[in-house]
Amino acid sequence: MRFDINGIVSLPVSCSFVVPLSASYLLKDNCVPVDLCGTLTRTAANAPDCDAYRLTGTVSAVLHFDCESCLDSVSKTILFDVDEMFCTSGDIEKEIWDFSDHMIDVVPAITSAVILNLPMTFVCHADCKGLCPSCGVNLNNSTCQCSGHVLDPRFEKLRALFPQ
Known about the structure:
Blueprint: E1 2-4, E2 10-20, E3 31-43, E4 52-66, E5 73-87, E6 96-98, E7 103-105, H1 107-116, H2 156-161
C-alpha cells in the first residue's frame, strides 16, 4: 500500500491489505489480512535535507492456524499499535524506513510489525488440554478411557531405582 505524500502535512490512513508471511510455517495461509487505521504526519527530522513522516495507528490482523496442542483449526485476531518513522534518507537511525519520489510504502513496516507481534505459541486457548498421548483423542472435547499415565520405556530402569 503506497501513499502519495506530495505537499501533505497530515494524512488520515485507513486501509486493508494482505501481508505475505511465507516464513511462518505455523500459519495455514501464506498471507495475513491486515487492517490499518491511523495517521501519516509530517514531522521534523534530525537531518536538514530529510523529509520525515510518522505513521501512528492501530493494526488488526487475522491469523489462521492449527493449535499446537490439540490440532484444532483456529482463527484469532491480534490487535497492536504501530509507530513507524519514514525518511527520505533511511541512514539516520536503524528504526527509520526510507522512501523516495513522494511515495511511502507502508507494507514492509507493517509486515515487520506483524511478525514481531505473532504469538510465541499458537494455541487455541491458554488452558488447552491437548491430545491424549496414548489414543490421540482431543481432551478438550471428551475424555478418553486410557490409564492416563504412559511411561516412556526408556525410563524403566530409573523406575526400578525409585519404587513407589
